[in-house]
Amino acid sequence: MIEIKGLSKSFNGRVVLDDISANFQQGKTNMVIGGSGTGKSVLLKCMIGILVPERGKVLYDGRDFLKAHQDVVKEIRREMGVLFQGGALFDSKSVLENVRFPLDTLTSQTLEEKNAQAMLCLQRVGLESAALLMPSEISGGMKKRVGIARAIVMNPKYLFCDEPNSGLDPLTAVKIDYLIQEITQEYNMTTVVISHDMNSVMRMGESIIFLKDGKKIWEGNSDTFHHSGVPELEEFLSTKLV
């Protein structure tokens, strides 16, 4: 489980996160939704250590990520998997080499062991036949699946997905949603998904927080968010759903 408590972040006097607190449950897809500029990506970056908040705590199964000894910080980071927007693959590396990259940089396994582990992850996302292809030779949806394989190659406890459906056609988006949900349950991970795609929220929003102007306005799940009674959320939904 991941807990955030009183998280606040500002840039040049502009408050981007304002006292955000939330619990992200293990074995569930926990979604952070909101419009552009509401603080979603900043929250994610604070949670994984790219940005440092002015106030607050980020607890990984009780370990204070922001105040922990460097050895503990490294341990927590090794337990994270991140699916970046667009997949963020290395153009000069093959699909297999992209998936293997965390193992190359963080483990002392043999090449044979690393390749075997990377191939298992590619098999899990249905891309073992694409292992020797280059990113330029595969589709956008395949790149996302390669990104997922890379994110899980270290057997993480925590998975972060930043707009996983950005730029995908509707059918491919559905497949990526279900794949993330299946992997979350199989690995019993704590998964945090940043999204403004309401179809994704309906499909896999087991736990949802809604941000507006840097504040948490509402918390619930996909069964209740259409009947929240919160004007800000209802206005947001009216602009996203036809």
UniProtKB/TrEMBL annotation:
Highest taxon, organism lineage = Bacteria
Any idea where the ABC transporter domain is? 2-238
The Swiss-Prot or TrEMBL record annotates one GO molecular function as: ATP hydrolysis activity
Question: Could you tell me the keywords of this UniProt record?
Answer: ATP-binding, Nucleotide-binding, Transport
Q: Which InterPro entries match?
A: AAA+_ATPase, ABC_transporter-like_ATP-bd, ABC_transporter-like_CS, P-loop_NTPase
Q: Does the keyword ATP-binding apply?
A: yes
Quote any Pfam family the record assigns: ABC_tran
Question: Is Nucleotide-binding one of the keywords?
Answer: yes
Name this polypeptide is given: ATP-binding cassette domain-containing protein
Q: Which organism is it from?
A: Aquirufa antheringensis
| Taxonomic path | Bacteria, Pseudomonadati, Bacteroidota, Cytophagia, Cytophagales
